[in-house]
Amino acid sequence: MTVYESFAEIADRFSTLLVDAYGVFWDGGGFYPGSLETLSDAVRRGKRVCVLSNTTSPGADSVRTYAKRGMLQGVHYTDFVTSGDVLRKAVLEEKIDIPGRKIYMWGTPRGALFADSAYRLVDDISAADAFYISIPQLTDREKANYPEFEDEFFLSRLSLDDDHRLWDTLTEKPFAASLREMLRHNLPALCANPDFRAFEKPKTGGEPRPVIRQGAVAEMYRRMGGRVVEFGKPHANIYQCAFAVLGIAPSPQVAMIGDTFRTDIAGALHAGISAVWCIETGMSRYEKEKGVSLEKQSNGAMEKVFLIKSLGGKTENR
Q1: What's the CA gap between 179 and 181, in Å, rounded?
Q2: Which pLDDT belongs to residue 121?
Q3: Cα–Cα–Cα angle for 310, 22, 174, nearest 5°?
Q4: Are 136 and 107 in contact (CB under 8 A)?
Q5: In the 8-state DSSP scheme, what is residue 32?
Q6: pLDDT for res 188
Q7: What is the pLDDT of residue 161?
Q8: DSSP code at position 286
Q9: Which of 22, 4, 9 is nearest to 258 (CA)?
Q10: pLDDT for residue 110
Q11: Packed helices 236-246 and 83-92: angle between N→C axes, nearest 10 degrees
Q12: What is the model's pTM?
């Protein structure tokens, strides 16, 4: 198959772009070289450029976050839709497939998605109708229970101070016991970030690391026999939301640009749009470095996929 150096080589094929964030233009610590230039060129040429991200943050918050980093709405993209937006809409419309309205918060507490709604957060697992998978991190006390994984913990940039430290992890194993407790209570899980991992830069510095994220926890719960209700790529709900925001219908002139086959590329193909796979950045690169070929990542389903090395034609920031 043809592998293009950058998206610019095939840009004229598309009128509308859906663009993943982590692993495509953002590496967890900075922008990939050439990525912002590629996006701004698309906007200058009149294309709609919608960042489509699996993050629980609302799109409006993400717009502000990236503006502080130098990526501006109207210059580098036109719209921003997140999986958090999709869940929030379902919350406000009371259209979540769970048996009640009481939610237990699992992981680092983030309750804004359920604020001012019919859903209520509860502290007692036995009183909950479902649990929400928030960011999978550990406190100092929780981390101390797993000395065997000491080398796989990294101080999170979300840590507030020395008294409120949070630890990201490269392994999902420390979360198994608490998930078994959820299963014992027969609670369905809500997940608004189906990504298995995300590259995050530790608070103490160094290169971004592929830490466990909500999708990996959701997958672990499924394998235990639990039921999971998900919002975000690869599911239709986020693509349908993006189409509504953009006022378009799915077509080959709409392209999803992503680094993860399972979420970005498979989701795009199922949504009836073109898929552009960045194969030398983000999670694709991580999987290849682990020995997982592109064929295995895609389960051999690459026939209709455009392959590019990276969005901007370069893969290294440093």
Answers
A1: 5
A2: 97
A3: 130
A4: yes
A5: P
A6: 98
A7: 77
A8: H
A9: 22
A10: 85
A11: 90
A12: 0.95
